[in-house]
Amino acid sequence: MVENLSLPSHPQPPPSLAEPFPPRLGPTESPSATAQEILTGAPPEPEGSLTWVQLKQETQCSSLKPSRFGPIWKTRFQSRFSKSSAQYQQLMLKRIGVITSGGDSPGMNPAIRAIARTGVSLGIDVVGIQNGYQGIFDREFMPLGVIEVSGRIRDAGTILSTSRCLHFKEEKSQLQAIEILKKENIQALVVLGGDGSLAGAAALSKLGLRVLGLPCSIDNDLSGTEMSIGVDSCLNTVVHLIDMIKATAASHNRCFVIEVMGRNHGYLALMSAIASGSQIAVIPEFRYDMDKIIENLTRRRLRRHNNSVVVVAEGACSGQEFMNRLLDAGKNKLEQEVRLTVLGHLQRGSPPTFSDRFLATRMGEFAVLALNQGEHGSMVGLLRNRMNLTDLQEIKGHRPPLPADAIRLARNLGMEVGVPSEI
What SS3 state is found at 221? Predict the structure, then answer.
């Protein structure tokens, strides 16, 4: 049973936006509620709970305790007013928009497909907005129904196309975007993207738009979820490519430096290095010691291994820069030819794996169900194999740490990963 609480005061959206887009309820302390409770519905609560000033109707709000990712909260909204009332009709979803923004990731299309098909099941019109946030200003809208998303579950990339819209960081552009969506009768928005895209979603939510985000990032650098859409597909591609490179490296007794993506997060480099049996992982979070790296490679050569692989995250340094330093420091020690391979956008372009298809489908369906239950201002995430909602405002500036067990595993396998940068 949820305790009776007083709703904290929150800034109201501009008057012009208040009617179509009600403000998001903020977190308050109360017993935890699971995501399953939200979607299945909870039994009626006693009268006299909270008051949402704008609707002047009793509502309830509960939150999860802070998760292991930091001060992240989960909010539940359940209104108790007549379905025939004007307030209920205002909140009832009839038309939602979908955007893919920033860098693409395998699994975006399965998520779009799930959103569209769930919308059809609930009688909600789903509108695709092409080319990211820029598509709002260019009014690039397209209907998304069963026909439009048919067969897309197996495709990489995004059928909506994507771009980076730099002027969207300005509040003036954000307000303009909301007015355009209002004229198109789009009541809510689902944003698929990484940290920059979700920062834009958070800004729209703060201004009164009903928004939910889906984490799509091959870097797996978003807090509030254990896995982002696209990570598994990218890792499978990287490991497969490293296996191919190791085959030719062994034929020529070479050391290969392989640059992978990972702007500020070394998850992709670390995990692919472990899974491919590589010897070195150079990641942004850890400071590498070139002498130890050369010692590791020399020891491997003396044991008659005919190939070595160093996986470098682009956020630590470029592969070319690392190779130059390695050659300078190991002039008289390395007796192997060193070559460089930059995997580049091959990492993004693979068809989504089963794991990404299933995760994206779960998240897409959950986003529509949550919006239809009154949730907004959150990002859908996966925690302990359950769907979870995290406040968009809390995601900004919270980057998840690398898994400690993965670091331990790498070291126990004899890999060189360096030491934490703060030490």
Answer: coil
In a domain, 210, yes or no: yes
**CB-neighbour burial class of residue 140 (10 A; exposed 0-12, middle 13-18, buried 19+):** middle
Residue 195 is among the residues annotated as catalytic for this protein: no
Name the E strands within 227-306: 254-260, 280-282, 286-287
Q: How many domains does the chain have?
A: 3
Q: What is the pLDDT along the chain (423 residues), one digit of tens a residue?
A: 444 444 344 444 433 333 333 334 333 333 334 444 434 444 444 343 332 233 223 233 333 333 333 333 333 333 433 445 555 556 678 999 999 999 999 999 999 999 999 999 999 999 999 999 999 999 999 999 999 999 999 999 999 999 888 899 999 999 999 999 999 999 999 999 999 999 999 999 999 999 999 999 999 999 999 999 999 999 999 999 999 999 999 999 999 999 999 988 999 999 999 999 999 999 999 999 999 999 999 999 889 888 999 999 999 999 999 999 999 998 778 888 999 999 999 999 999 999 999 999 999 999 999 999 999 999 999 999 999 999 999 988 788 999 999 999 999 999 999 988 765
Domain presence at residue 77: yes
Taking the C-alpha atoms of residue 184 and residue 120, their distance in angstroms, rounded to an integer, is 19
CA end-to-end distance (rounded Å), the chain: 47
Domain span at 35 = 15-87
Q: Do 205 and 300 fall into the same domain?
A: no
Q: 99 and 175, same structural domain?
A: yes
Please indicate, yes or no, whether residues 296 and 170 belong to a single structural domain of this protein: no
* Residue 201, domain member (yes or no): yes
Q: Which token pair is 296? A: 């590791």
Residue 179 placed within a domain: yes
Q: Which residues pair with 339 in a beta bridge?
A: 256
Classify strands 125-129 and 337-342 as parallel, antiparallel or unpaired.
Answer: unpaired
Residue with tokens 């939150």: 63
Is 247 found in the same domain as 167? no
Report the C-alpha gap between 42 and 80 in whole angstroms.
11
Select which of 195, 219, 221, 356 is catalytic: 219
